[in-house]
Every structure is written in C-alpha cells, then in structure tokens.
DNA sequence: ATAAAAATTTAGACTAGTCTAAAAAAATAT
DNA sequence: ATATTTTTTTAGACTAGTCTAAATTTTTAT
C-alpha cells in the first residue's frame, strides 16, 4: 500500500517517463513535484526499495512494470473522477483537476469499478485525455502539440493540458475543445504565435497556448 | 486547514460529546481512535491551541462552537458520500462506511454543494442518520435504542449503527431497516435478548443488536 | 587536461504523529 | 487519613516527509 506522497511521486515519474525515453532525472522530479532535489533522492530510494522504479546513483530513475501499472491506476482514477465531476455534477472543465488530485488517492477497487460503470465506461476524460482501462491498458491517441505542426495543417483537437484553470477557461472561450476541427493558417516568425481557424473562427494564439493543444496526426 | 488526523480526532470528540454532557476523557478518545492515551494528550493540546476544543489538564475536553461546526461539516460530507454510494453507485449499505471515511476528508465546498444537489438534498443517509445542512444544522430525530424500550413498544426504526458491516448485513437480512415498523413483544431476563416483530416477522434478537437499532419515541 | 559549473547525494535538523516507560495527579478503598 | 489503584501527562524515541548546507560526482568550458 502506497502513501499519498509515494503515489504522487510515482505519477510524476510516470508522466516524465512518457515524455522522453531516457532516465528521469532527480531535478526533473523535483521540479514536477515542487520540492527539493534532496527530498527526491530520499523518496526515489524508497520507491526503488519497493521495486516501483530502478535507480542508479547520479544517473536517474526508470519506472518498472509494477510502477507503471500502479501509476496508470492512479491516472485512471483521476480521469474517471474528472469525468464524473463534469458529466454528473456539472462542474466546468477548468474546475475539476484539483479535486481529482485528491480523489485519485481514495482506495477502493470496487468504487472505481462502480464509478466506471456509472459513467458508461468512458474512453477519455473531459480534456480528451485517455482513461486507462481496469487492466491498465491505455490507448495512446497519436497526437502532437499544435505548435509542432506546419502551416497548412488541418485536423482536430485530441486533448488539452488540464492542470491550468486559466488556460482551460481561455480554450473554452475560443471554442478550442477536444473533437473540434482546427486548421493552422500561418506561423509568425517573431514570437512563434499561430494564426488558426477553430470553431469556424479565425484567431491568433500564442506559442504557450499552442504547445498545450494536442491535435490528431 | 485541518489535517486528516486532526479531522478524525475532532469527529471522534464530537461524537463522544453527543453521548453524555460531561467533559470527554482522554481514555475515551484513545479508545474511540484506537490509539494510546499519550498520543491523545498531544493531539488535544494541538486542537486546543487551534480553539476547536477547550482542554483542562487531568479534567478532560469540551468541544467549542468552532469545533462542533467543523465536525458537523465532516459528518455532512461522510453521510452525503454514503448516500451517493448507495443511491447512485448501487453499493450495499454495509459496504459504504469505510469508503466514506476516506471521502469525508476531500476538501472542496463546491463539490459538497454540487453533490448535495445531485442527490436531491437528502435529509438522512442510508442508515437513517441525519445529514447536517450546509450551515451545520442537524435535525436530531428523537430516538432511543430499542434495547431501552419496554415490552409493548410499537414504533418504527429511525436509524442503525453504520460502522459494522456484519451488523448491517444481518439487519438487512431480517428486514430491520430505517422506516420499518417494529414492535417489542418481550424481554428475556437472562441475557436481555428481545422478542420482536419487524417486517411482519417475529424473531429474537440479542442485546448487542438491540442496542444498535434506534427507534422513534 | 584542468578548472569551473551544474547536478546529485549526504548530513543533520525540523514537524506531525505515534509509541513505551516513567512520573504525577486524581479517584477509590481501607 | 492513608494507601492503593486508575487515569493522565511527560519524557524520550521512532518513522515519514521535508528542508538547508555541505560534500561529492558529473558535465561543460577553456
Ligand atoms: Mn487532471
Ligand atoms: Mn484531465
Ligand atoms: Mn458511516
Ligand atoms: Mn451512515
């Protein structure tokens, strides 16, 4: 049984493992967890002893099968709860992440099974992020940040980063939500802002925004 | 902001305060929390500093207005979640208490407000226990343990103790659920077992069971 | 190849919560 | 009224998680 804190570290390590195939560095984890490197060193020793990660001094950390499976269960819970909050309790999509950060630690396999059923076995959460199934299988949609596309790109929005409430409010305002058709018209050299068409409107978005919109490729 | 542990102590102290108008003793709290008296002394000092209780050395503890209000919010959350689990997720009434013990600590006033609304502002939980409203107002139904009634008593079940899964399974089996009509036919001197009629069936129940069935008076 | 800079680990301290054992106070019995 | 028992508090230690500061290792720059 993992503690709250251990679960949060493991989740962070999982996410960092996904973006980049190399070992995860101590400072990256510290940054992600808003903590200090010294604290991370202590924790990765602990998680290593419990075989959720493999750890080589000064080199970094790799998540194990067991660790990945555990992390995916936490992510499953997080995304199911977010779906519940939006679909059933009628929260706005920008209000649910912080609450799900708490709810994801509730321990009860039966609860998650029944919640999944109550929601009709959703495949993705309100932000378009895929929900791992009960076996930890997650179908990674092939997507890339809009920012990395070339002018002329036409496709649809798969998902958006869900942890920044202000970003989500903004995206909702301009109609940039998962499933929407989107086109990249031009890229401004100077600040890498993009001219796009989304929700049948033309507008300009900043690089920072474009990096957090994942589109189908 | 209270910690998990502080919330659990406060809740225990509230419940102990309700049953009996005297100060709550260190050993009573230790018993209720399954911990040692020395640990309790530490914690009541802390809760006292934060003005949730008043504490006099060697004498005991009294809960403050602020402490009562805080405790009632936790109880409100606990009972709303239990109601959700039974009404919406179709849990059995004996499966929900332990999960609600976790869920009651989730911090989000908006979540509780929306949950309350989603459930149709229920007045009592699956075990018949009253749900405090958003202002912490709780309507204490006038009830007493069936065990304390005299033969000839006829009335209905108000609530049952909810923390023992085996008791709840048993009560469900014999049809002794909140709202049901119940009559006390006779009391056995030797072991204080009761002959009752409930759910249109006559049966004998032990003292231990009769103490945990609260009936209208 | 060596020096400087950056990243990581270790050492030691702190808080929250818990425990056991001992001391002190209160309650009870003679 | 005194002695015994019970309850409560204190003292000191332990774990989880965190921090700062110092030591060590690795990387980068000259
Ligand atoms: Mn989220
Ligand atoms: Mn999400
Ligand atoms: Mn309960
Ligand atoms: Mn209940």
TrEMBL record, chains A, B:
The keyword Cell membrane does not apply. Belongs to the DtxR/MntR family. It holds the Pfam family Fe_dep_repr_C. It is found in: Cytoplasm. Its main location: cytoplasm. In the presence of manganese, represses expression of mntH and mntS. Up-regulates expression of mntP. Keywords: Activator, Cytoplasm, DNA-binding, Iron, Manganese, Repressor, Transcription, Transcription regulation. The keyword Nucleotide-binding does not apply. This is Transcriptional regulator MntR. Homodimer.
């Amino acid at each position: 049984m993992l503690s709250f804190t251990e679960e949060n570290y493991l989740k962070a390590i999982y996410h960092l493992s996904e973006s980049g195939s190399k070992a995860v560095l101590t400072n990256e984890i510290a940054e992600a967890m808003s903590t200090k490197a010294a604290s991370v060193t202590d924790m990765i020793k602990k998680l290593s002893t419990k075989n959720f990660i493999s750890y080589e001094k000064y080199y970094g950390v790799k998540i194990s099968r067991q660790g990945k499976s555990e992390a995916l269960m936490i992510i499953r819970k997080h995304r199911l709860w977010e779906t519940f909050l939006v679909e059933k309790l009628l929260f706005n999509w920008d209000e649910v992440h912080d609450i799900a950060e708490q709810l994801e630690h509730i321990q009860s396999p039966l609860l998650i099974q029944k919640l999944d059923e109550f929601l009709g076995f959703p495949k993705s959460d309100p932000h378009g992020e895929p929900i791992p199934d009960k076996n930890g299988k997650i179908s990674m949609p092939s997507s890339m940040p809009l920012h990395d596309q070339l002018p002329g790109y036409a496709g649809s929005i798969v998902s958006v980063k869900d942890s920044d409430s202000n970003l989500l409010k903004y995206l909702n305002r301009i109609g940039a939500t998962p499933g929407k058709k989107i086109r990249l018209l031009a890229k401004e050299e100077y600040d890498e802002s993009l001219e796009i068409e989304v929700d049948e409107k033309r507008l300009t978005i900043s690089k920072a925004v474009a990096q957090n919109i994942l589109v189908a490729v």
